[in-house]
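Hey,
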Amino acid sequence: MSLADLSLRSVKVRLFLTCWMVYVLHFATDFVREHYLVLSIVEDHTFRLDPYLGMHVDIFQNPPTAPHGGVHQDANPGISFVGAIPYFLTKPAVDLVVAKTLASRGQADTTAQYNDPRWRRVEFYQKVRRLGLDVRFGLVGAITQAFCMAPLSAYSAVVIFGLLGHLGLGRRMALALAFLYAFGTPVFFRTAFLNQNLGIGVASLLAFVLIWNPGGHLRWSLRTRYLLAGFLGGFCLLTDYSGGLSLGLLGLYALWVGRDEHDFGQGFRDSLWYAAGAIPPVLMLFYYQWASFGDWFHPAQHWMPPVEGTDVGYKGVGGLSTELVRLLLIDPRYGLFIVAPITLLAFAAPWLNRRGTSLLPSRETWFCLAYAVAFILFFGCVQYTRVQYVTGLRYLVPVIPFLFLPAAAVLLRLPRWLGYSLALVSFVINWSISMVRSQGSVIDNLIHVFVAGFQLPWLTVLGKTSKQYLPWLEAPVNALPFFVLLGVLIAVVWTIRDPAQPPEG
């Protein structure tokens, strides 16, 4: 059965399932600050994180100057709100598993082993094991990844595929580029656990497509599209204050599109629908800040205790630093052009527009580049950029979809051997860092894979903690059988008969 024989909907479903399965298999057990808010919302119906004080550096006791007391996190709640949905639905099953596990365990083991050189991780694991939270934390991490982050990223790959098709690209090439976006960019790496930066990127991409509506393929009215786009833009702000860039830039883009298609006056009136759509999530952010800190206006970072870097500017946000821009772009551990080398191609896209040979229209090319540059300049002012080595590329993840589109336009114009080579390099880099997840350089991750072979983050951690859960398991654990199983499942997804096709004969 060839790709041309499948219906468009069938191809999109198969693309989604393939991406989802690959993402889920590469689940990482990192338990981040956003997970604690998921737990509090679902279990205690509150934004307070009192039971988890001391478990994460971003969780703090409100200072005496805050009108409200309690323990909270220094982040916006948007992605935690989304992650709370699958946990709420699965909590009865999680409670059952946790209860049976703790009952069979008996007295807590205070000498739990975690064979890892990073003492902070060992200390954290032993603490949650001692408190009987290890299984719950593991299940919550897996659930929020499998039913929040993985579906969001998989759907964004489907959006990229559909968008490329509407721009006139053939189905086979559009599918290949969608897979390159899914697995040859840091989208792969960041999908492994609950992450607000990737949530901003996906929401911004969806809002961008809603406003643009290339070829008029969306049959919704302009009012509906702009309302939804505004809601997604507002969700970006609800998810992180850097999402305010997305909210504002997408609003300007809506005005730009309206001006081009009608006139400035009509474009302004149309963009008011975008502003109206943004109101609910923005009000939700104000409510969250009031409920947590007693002050609807100031962000969570306003109340956090001083840490390294916060003495610069306002809570670590100061003037533009060329050093920080350099770290963002070319640091060997997390630099954008190091972990996503194909994004460099995006900046050659305007040259194709001038020649009239670009897949992407000039207006959209310039918007995508402006979106990326805005984030680069903003985080070039943020001191937290220096600590990205802990979790890899993070702050610039929202720009990945916007740089991928113009980069794809350039990639298609390169000699075939060069285009395939660059795509392969990006895939190998991002698959390697998604398997190893080392705090070292990209080269360290590549060497580790080529020397130690295939691996999976959750399987690596299981091997390091096997004494507590599977005493018979010896580390390192061979990941190859899981990749074979994944290959079989993907083959089934792409060979099963399309229900839309009439039966043969």
